Amino acid sequence: xxxxxxxxxxxxxxxxxxxxxxxxxxxxxxxxxxxxxxxxxxxxxxxxxxxxxxxxxxxxxxxxxxxxxxxxxxxxxxxxxxxxxxxxxxxxxxxxxxxxxxxxxxxxxxxxxxxxxxxxxxxxxxxxxxxxxxxxxxxxxxxxxxxxxxxxxxxxxxxxxxxxxxxxxxxxxxxxxxxxxxxxxxxxxxxxxxxxxxxxxxxxxxxxxxxxxxxxxxxxxxxxxxxxxxxxxxxxxxxxxxxxxxxxxxxxxxxxxxxxxxxxxxxxxxxxxxxxxxxxxxxxxxxxxxxxxxxxxxxxxxxxxxxxxxxxxxxxxxxxxxxxxxxxxxxxxxxxxxxxxxxxxxxxxxxxxxxxxxxxxxxxxxxxxxxxxxxxxxxxxxxxxxxxxxxxxxxxxxxxxxxxx
Length: 405
Hints:
By secondary structure, the protein is α+β, with helices and mostly antiparallel strands. It has 2 domains: 3-110, 2-Layer Sandwich (NE0471 N-terminal domain-like); 123-400, Double-stranded beta-helix, CATH 3.60.130. The protein has 14 helices and 21 strands. A 6-stranded mixed β-sheet has the order 8-9-19-12-21-10. The two termini are 31 Å apart. Keywords: Carnitine biosynthesis, Dioxygenase, Iron, Metal-binding, Oxidoreductase. One of its GO terms (cellular component) is mitochondrion. Its cofactor is Fe(2+).
């Protein structure tokens, strides 16, 4: 606040002056010789003091003492800069003293460009959406053995998977532990009611629609879980010689954006109408009855797509919404399914392929195939969670770029 601003406040009634003072963002300006000046809210700097009373280096976390009696009226009493050492010093109105290295401040600068850079490059890679006609351009192949032995290749695979939602791994051995070894390179497998790994092949009396040789419609895996498995991995051990068994993939985030632009009311319906997703059955000795209620299209606080729920066989006959919402939902869903097929891409994996894709973003399916004793299709599947993938991406990025935030 300038001196002129303060003179203006003097002429105001005390109550009005206090209200105007509270409305002003109290910022600390830091002149940086290497870039544009930085500015930080004073309360944020006080909250993030790095001294031993406020911060525990071995856990890289703040201590809770300040928050036991947080004084949000705390102000900067005096500030100074050591230009040679590039350190900001602040004495606070509560008697506390803090110091902040410029390198630390630069990583956390509140400028819009720096915030975008951090979210895009370090928090999570920026997603690039695609239509089926673009699939061959975004499709990328990785070598299984390189992923097992080389951190750089592992980082490139996970980055591509996070960006485009799909990546194909080739030349994996036809062994039952391939997905476990790959998962262990990332972190660990996600266990579900179907175990850590599951076999997808035609089975008599199958308890899951995927275990039939019939066409498998586009879907996300396990929408009946609140905590949805993030990355699906499908290892082809045997492939049907029949014309069928073709994998189908669609970037459902792309479909959602098409609906947002062309059919905004139907987009709203799919974002706001909760749907009952369910899975009832047994696996070995385990009996289960899973239910989760959520819309088809899930958005975050900024309106971006973060999850798609869709599975025709696993949509419950219970539909716990008012009567007048039912038909609009069906009409919107018919549009969604039609667009998902229109923008899908089809290809057939071969033995030794591991298809990996984002289960929160892509819908996948397959065409029907003939299944006989001499014509078998056997896919082994497993999941890893996105939290584990993103964690490893940051670790690998910091290892390859020590200056990363």
